[in-house]
Design a protein that fits this description.
By secondary structure, the protein is of the alpha/beta class. It has helices spanning about 1-20, 25-35, 40-60, 65-85, 110-120, 135-145, 165-170, 190-195, 205-220; strands at about 95-100, 125-130, 150-155, 180-185, 200. It contains nine helices and five strands. The chain has a five-stranded parallel beta sheet with strand order 2-1-3-4-5, sandwiched between helices.
């Protein structure tokens, strides 16, 4: 129960900071949670991530504006910077390559960057295409880099509808069967990801990295490259 109260305090602090960024205390609250023994991954998965989802939902309802999303991104970065040194590290072992980008029309990179940080800590090599990435750019990058996994990030309900177009472009280019595809972002569900032609959909970075590790482990066990 005590841990739930700590995580709720983090969520409340996050939304308070969006509305009054000049008095943002997120770094202090995250440090307090760590001192109280809350694991860094729990703070990320059950504290910061749900708060970021709330901000995205309020934006979709017209309660928040683009400026609020930008502030939320900054708050998230501040919280994650406190956690980074506490996140588990796997050393130099590279277990696979993930090509990742935020889809065309979406300029948000916070969720993508958190996923990338966690994935690198778990032993993945990350190729980051940045934000506002077109289907053609994804196709070109898959051809050039031959990744194991392609990650597509979208924060908004409107931009996630571009994901099926990227999958379709990979199919047309004859590249779809060479990679696993994971869609990630606040509005993403597993059922949407399946309809879009992806292999998995997640709305938090921790689950996303766990899914990618599962894929690579099963791939190694079966002795196949892709």
């Amino acid at each position: 129960m005590f841990r739930k109260e700590i995580l709720k305090r983090i969520q409340d602090c996050f939304t308070d900071c969006v509305e009054n960024f000049t008095h943002c205390r997120i770094a202090r609250v995250v440090k307090e949670a760590l001192r109280d023994g809350t694991p860094a991954l729990d703070i990320l998965e059950y504290g910061l991530n749900p708060a970021l989802r709330v901000v995205g939902e309020r934006f979709e309802r017209g309660e928040y504006f683009v400026s609020d999303l930008i502030i939320a991104g900054q708050i998230m970065k501040e919280g994650v910077s406190v956690l980074e040194q506490m996140l588990p590290k796997k050393g130099a072992e590279i277990c696979g390559t993930i090509l990742i980008g935020t889809v065309k029309g979406d300029m948000h990179d916070v969720g993508k960057n958190i996923f990338s940080t966690l994935a690198q800590a778990s032993g993945f090599r990350i190729i980051d295409l940045g934000v506002d990435v077109s289907a053609d750019r994804f196709v070109e990058a898959v051809r050039e880099n031959n990744p194991d996994i392609v990650g597509m990030s979208a924060l908004l309900g409107s931009t996630m509808n571009y994901i099926p177009r990227i999958v379709e472009a990979l199919v047309k280019a004859g590249l779809r069967n060479r990679v696993r595809i994971i869609a990630g972002g606040a509005p993403i569900t597993q059922s949407f990801a399946r309809r879009a032609g992806a292999d998995a959909g997640v709305n938090n970075a921790v689950q996303g990295v766990e899914k990618c590790r599962e894929w690579l482990e099963s791939q190694r066990d079966s002795g196949h490259d892709h």
